[in-house]
Amino acid sequence: MSSADERPLAVGIDIGGTKTAAGLVTMRGEVRRRAEVPTPAADGAEAVLATAARLAAELVDGSADPVSAIGIGAAGVIDPRRRLVLSATDTLPGWSGMRVGDRVETALGLPVAVDNDVRAHAVGEARFGAGRGLSSALVIAAGTGVGGALVLDGHPQQGATGIAGHFGHIPSVEAQGLPCTCGRSGHLEVIASGPAVLAAYRRAGGGGEAGDTRAVFELAEGGDPAALAAIRTAGRALGGAIGGLVNALDPEVVIVTGGLSHTSALWWGPLRDGFGEEAIDLVRSCPLTPAALGADAAIIGAAALAFDLVAERMRSGIPSSAGSADRGILPDPRSRNLGGSA
């Protein structure tokens, strides 16, 4: 097997409910080439996987330099050791139980690393973005949901069962009595996520003119009291939760990403206030900073995990193409019969 230095590129793939993006990435985290297509979620899990494999194959075949491995950041609860989707929402029907790593590795003949898309995003930011040069980073993603990862020395902490980072399911005082999608109630996600802002606005008697979270922020900029209250509550609740996490984990930086992180001071101000109220004196100086890599973070992080897998296999003496018991199930990604979106 060639060394990683002789094969300087990896493909990073970000599989989400609405789009699948992939890129050729260097070991320095530079994206040389990028491709993106809609995720064919309505066509089922096989089409989603085939689409991701086809994007990867096109990037590999079109590269002037050799590609060492493929990394996948996938939506859902992922077991990165078995490269398996443990569970997923209805956004990706049939995705739960999919052996993503085995299937793509068999189809492309390259090592494949798989992790949750948020953890891949966190690795990208910690190694090459807002956390570059630091040994520890807590990454918080606030958007459709609330999640993240603790990254130590560039490696995401996965937990005993592989589901670490579900910060949206820690208790929140502000969310008491509100039902959560997990079946419990009072969790952070139902007060601090993007959809939660819209729901809080409507609970407060906000008018029907706000059709989405972005509209709530627009109304808040105009002084709408219900919109302002919903945003302030969401920001303060998330900031307080971050303060508690920093008390427990003591990272060098907190990197805030996701759709809400791109909003105005109307959200960032309460976020910092909530953090300051809960963080103890010894860690209150921990910086809260916006993410730096934008939409490429998960691609870059997934590729970094792929390079890690190559290095690990080299140390263990495992061949670069380890094979799989599922051989032949996924159509050849270089064929015209992959299914999925063009």
UniProtKB/TrEMBL annotation:
Pfam family, one: ROK
Chain intervals for the UniProt region annotation (Disordered): 319-342
InterPro entries tied to this protein: ATPase_NBD, ROK
Family the entry assigns: Belongs to the ROK (NagC/XylR) family.
Name this protein carries in UniProt: ROK family protein
Source organism: Microbacterium capsulatum
